Amino acid sequence: MSAAHYQLRLPSLAAFIAGVLNLIFNLYHFSLQGTGGLYTWHPLPMLTGILFMGLVPLLLTILYILLCRTGPGWLRITFRWLSLLMSALVSLVSIVLLAYLIIVPRMGKLEIPQLSLIDPARGIKITGPETSQSATTSLDTTSAKPLLRLSFSSDPHWGVKSSNAEARTSILRTIAQRRTDAFFMLGDTVETGNETPMWQSALNDLGHYIPHIPLRVLLGNHDALFGGQYLYTRAFAPRELWGNSGSPYYWSLNLKDVTIVAIDLPWGTENFGSRQRHWLEATLAAADPRKPIIVLSHSYFYASGYDDPKNQRPWYDHYQNIAQVVPLFEHYKVTLVISGHNHYQELLSHNGVTYAIVGSMGGIPDPKPTYISPASQWIAVGQFGWLDVDLFKDRLRLVFNNETGIPQFTWDLQSRTK
Does CATH number 3.60.21.10 belong to domain 148-414? Predict the structure, then answer.
């Protein structure tokens, strides 16, 4: 092998190895929950650079090969060393980032307190005279009290100083005092998903304030960051609680008075593939038409909001979710869709489906909306709180509460019961 051939082969091999390592990193990163949405909704220059950095050594190597034919000696040497150094740098960064994604969320130890996590296969144990909710008995037609009270909130963001710990604690304490039949947190439990101490803080508070309240937690976009799905499943979605979907991220709960369906939309429809779509269609089609259907999601559908000042992404009327998921809600006559993601409390109605935004559990409030959705019926900005949904035999009563439990807005929905 000639010296000239060797000089060409080494940079080419190094660039190839760097490109492969960068490709492996990106394939793994995009296999994780929420990564597609992160690149869609927060296309930061650093993320874009990481995505395409494997092309840099390749381009430098191509320039070096071209210069070997016609360029001056000093320029050939410069590009040869640039190619080798960049190949080494890209390879090292790719290995370090891949190790970070794999190891960091798996190495932290979580101490799981006693929580009453809801098993979709078993239903909800009721704190009142009823012993449990299941699909085996008919709807109550005589009681003047609610058949069931469900509570919802989202976006507490444990682990960041800008979140309001006092409001979050007040919400948990009041829900515990009122002994709601079940509490659903709709995502962004923590600020950064792969940080074990953040999840531990959330677990400690939930175990302290609401250990006996039936609880189910969805995965939010912040929860999913950088492999956070592994800590999420360890904390709130062990395999035995996956239900009939075969996934920890979406499931259905068939109670005697209501059907609850949770879907996996941390940012938008990046995770809404054919498997989840077919499961959702089958679940909605099989729902008892006598009962209301409540759908839970982290990211919203119709919502007021604003354009992100950094990248001008629209944080309102979600164009992905509306186009791909809302037609299913309308076709199968979903009663109520509850979401977080935007840090408001809002009620909206469109084509017979009611939407509630409840991203008000402690995360820093979003700015005043510059866009009010045509579907909006009521909105509260800069306020913390949660939503109670009381189920009666003929209606659902929605009560938006502030963090101390004082009702701010009430709305009645007709039940699907015949």
Answer: yes
